[in-house]
Write a structure and sequence with these properties.
Blueprint (H helix, E strand, L loop, with lengths): L5 E4 L5 H10 L4 E4 L4 E6 L3 H11 L8 E3 L3 H4 L7 H14 L4 E6 L6 H4 L4 E5 L4 H9 L4 E2 L14 H8 L5 E4 L10 E4 L6 E4 L5 H8 L27 E5 L1 H6 L6 E5 H11 L6 E4 L3 H16 L5 E5 L8 H11 L2
Parallel strand pairs: 1-8, 2-8, 4-6, 5-9, 11-14, 12-13, 12-14
Antiparallel strand pairs: 2-3, 3-7, 4-7, 5-6, 9-10
Helix pairs in contact: 1-6
């Protein structure tokens, strides 16, 4: 059964009030953060949280991130040592509001559905005027995964949200495109040595300048973080393959959609000719690429071919988060 999804224009002075009223009454509302659009509900209301999972078709073992306006509102959501709280406060002083989610043991009142069967919960204070204003209006944390059907690319515009969730949620707060374009860094503070569970815009190097050593290696699929246990970021009805420049060149005149760097496209156009199949180009700068990636995937999934070649990105530290998302999108 579908419902009418309200589109709330952020330029309307009443939009935030309407979004808050819907959240307060147990409804699900999509709203923009600096990273991607989140699918928000009252994070302390199990019935409201259940609506997130239903709308997304999200597996129940995939935990959610709780969103708050400040570290003061985050601390009551954890039950942990003073040392852990001090570490969280230190990181919040440097990176909040911003794209860093902190994982610590959950307080007893956090609904089981939020933590996906784990004993910890991720919390962050997002940046962005709209997200902050909305969260400051709420007297509860807002549970919010990305506002898309499970497995699809995360949305960076209200139109992306509507593409997969219109008719399934109460409202979309349209605040225009997000600025960062990929999800937050998730940092586990509960382990003996803090560990990044999911890379994002805030790098390991930036975190190390504040708290020192981080545990090496990648988190496994059973780590206490969203986005690790299931397939993600995949365009509909397209097989995404991460390939090198030589494979892009070999496919240039084939009916395969291509997403590559601008310099690659320019070189191949000059030396091989224009291509008839869908082509999108992105800049060879990590943050600019991140901001456009999901929008490019949504655009290409409408283009026709069932196969998409994405040019591999550089294997350097500033590209770690993008590389993570592309690898997950290409996983079979």
């Amino acid at each position: 059964m579908t419902q009418t999804t309200l589109i709330l224009d952020a330029n309307d002075p009443e939009a935030l009030k309407k979004a808050h009223a819907l959240l307060k009454s147990g409804n699900v509302v999509a709203f923009p953060t600096e990273t991607v659009y989140g699918l928000g509900a009252n994070g302390l209301d199990p019935a409201a949280v259940a609506k997130i999972f239903k709308a997304k078709g999200r597996p129940g073992d995939n935990p959610l991130i709780l969103h708050v306006s400040s570290i003061e509102h985050a601390i009551p959501l954890w039950q942990t040592t003073d040392a852990h709280i001090d570490l969280a406060i230190l990181l919040a002083e440097h990176f909040w509001p911003g794209p860093l989610s902190l994982v610590l043991p959950a307080a007893p009142h956090i609904p089981k559905a939020v933590i996906g069967g784990l004993d910890s919960v991720a919390v962050r204070a997002p940046a962005g005027t709209l997200a902050q204003k909305l969260l400051q209006m709420c007297d509860f944390p807002v549970a919010a995964p990305s506002a898309n059907l499970s497995g699809r690319p995360s949305p960076t515009t209200a139109a992306h949200v509507a593409k997969t969730l219109e008719g399934k949620i109460a409202a979309i707060l349209d605040g225009g495109p997000t600025s960062i374009g990929i999800e937050s860094t998730v940092l586990d503070l509960g382990s003996e040595v803090p560990q990044i569970l999911r890379p994002g815009d805030i790098s390991a190097e930036a975190i190390q300048t504040v708290i020192g050593e981080l545990a090496p290696g990648n988190a496994g699929a059973d780590a206490p973080s969203p986005g690790l246990r299931h397939r993600h970021y995949q365009p509909k009805d397209m097989q995404l393959s991460l390939v090198d420049e030589a494979a892009i060149a070999a496919a240039w005149q084939q009916n395969i959609a291509i997403l590559c760097f601008e310099e690659t496209a320019n070189y191949l156009t000059e030396n091989t000719g224009e291509r008839g199949a869908p082509l999108l180009v992105l800049p060879k700068e990590a943050r600019a690429y991140s901001a456009r990636l999901y929008d490019a995937l949504y655009e290409l999934e409408r283009s026709g071919p069932g196969q998409l070649f994405v040019e591999a990105v550089p294997q350097t530290s500033e590209w770690v988060a993008v590389q993570d998302r592309l690898l997950r999108a290409s996983a079979s």
